[in-house]
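Reopening: structure tokens for the zinc ion complex, inputs below.
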Amino acid sequence: MLPSWIPGSYLLREFARHVVAIEAEDAHGPVPLEQTAKGTWVAAGAEGELMVRATVHAYDLSVRGAYFDRQRAFFNGTSLFLLPEGHESTRIELTLERPRFAAAGWRVATAMRPEAVDAAGFGRYVADDYDELIDHPFEIGDFAVVEFTAASVPHRFAIAGRIETDLDRLATDLAQLCTAQIDFFGRPAPFGHYVFLGLAVGNGYGGLEHRASTSLIFKRGDLPKPGETGVPRDYQRFLALVSHEYFHSWHVKRSKPAAFMPYRLDRRNHTSLLWVFEGVTSYYQDLFLLRSGLIGRDVYLRRLGELLTRVYRVPGRRHQSLAAASFNAWDQLYKPDANSVNAGISYYSKGALVALALDLHLRANGQGDLDQLVLSLWQRFGREGRGLPEDGFEALAAEIGGEGTREFFAAAVRGTGDPDLAALFERFGLRFVLRQTEGPRDAGGTSPTLGHARLSLGASFEPAGGGLRLTTVLDGQPAQGAGLAPGDIIVALDRIQAGVDTLEERLGRYEEGDEVVVSFFRGDLLCEARLRLASAPADTCFIQVDAGAPAEAAALRRAWLGD
Ligand SMILES: [Zn+2]
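Re-run output (same inputs, fresh job):
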């Protein structure tokens, strides 16, 4: 059988759809294969040793699949390696041959254990079982490499794609970041060496975690430029991605839901705990940029404001709890549509918000902190190879924070209200402010610059044929009140042409409560509706240090964020 999904990415991808040919033979000759499910074949009547030969189309540039062209090859075992059912625990040998057209500079990067390989890394590898076989992706080609040591563990970063960057700086910064995380969870690291497999592209962003490696895709412009100092926003993005995936080495690859032990690769593996692993990791990714000294407190607070803004802009958080968002990942987060923003919430961003709120709640009450919780999860479950039961994180939290913590979970994890962040931040001498968004480019995290209130349609849009095509229409906002829907193309306001470039200026001529006539196409029909304008909602946050806060609050803040 070939897996339907790859651990870490919760969508049935049915990798078998890329199998273009498959045949089998035993000592007596060809054996017919009967396909019994999308990824399952049965070789009935085979005797002794069975040889199965599969040809797989590999042209997926993402970190989740397999890719092969004349410049490079990349693969996850889930795309290529058939599992003989019943042999999940059998030791497996993998022989990697150098492609005939490979240029002289081609070599191999992987965290899989080599057994007999040449200087470039072609040859024989071994995995103790199938789960390990599919948890070591391979990058093959003429890539750049930078090496560094963190907490005595050798690390290798292979970067494919065209790049112009400062590799020495990368090594220094990443060594700092990785050391901070290893020291957090405790030496020795649970891996003897670690490999980053990076692909630098014009536009792209994502990663997938593995037990001793990670696959990353990022903009080449996010890498530090030669001679550059400081940590600009694009480099912050890159570092945050690395920090996130590396944190997963402990927190989801080893500490993980019992529902994933073992992974059942032919079906959805539901768990209400994804927020614990993705949300908590999203919270720590930036915290470790701060703790390892790569960014300062003000940059951290700005990034935190941006993260929280991504939650406050989603009306669907009022309908879907974090637990439900986690459970439904397979058919919601991984299958977004135009109404997702009204129907649900991301367990990444809301999960990070709740991780933050829980951390502040514990710290403010003098009952430990989230570090203690994540570490006890690691020490009692991850490190011991025990899966976390569905109620396990809450139980650990209640041990640390007292039974009152269960109320926090009822509201923030199983409920749909917003934690009172303003009150929590105040205990830390910080002001949490919600303000109007100032336009489509406003990601939040900063104080307002517009001196006046702004009207908005309550929809997002893209340019289309001189008008505006609505991509999302937010619950309870003016566009929805007028009956507009995603896909509609607005062409005029009060019968004067409206476009993406002129919208802000046009809206600026009206007052809150004014009605405008909206002309729009739905399909090929020209329609009209009356739309009552309203102020843009206060869905954009920023966090400021309150210089006049009491000493006790400032002390709590320093304990959390440093000076
Ligand atoms: Zn993640």
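The chain has a mean pLDDT of 96. The radius of gyration is 26 Å. Marking as resolved unless the reporter disagrees.
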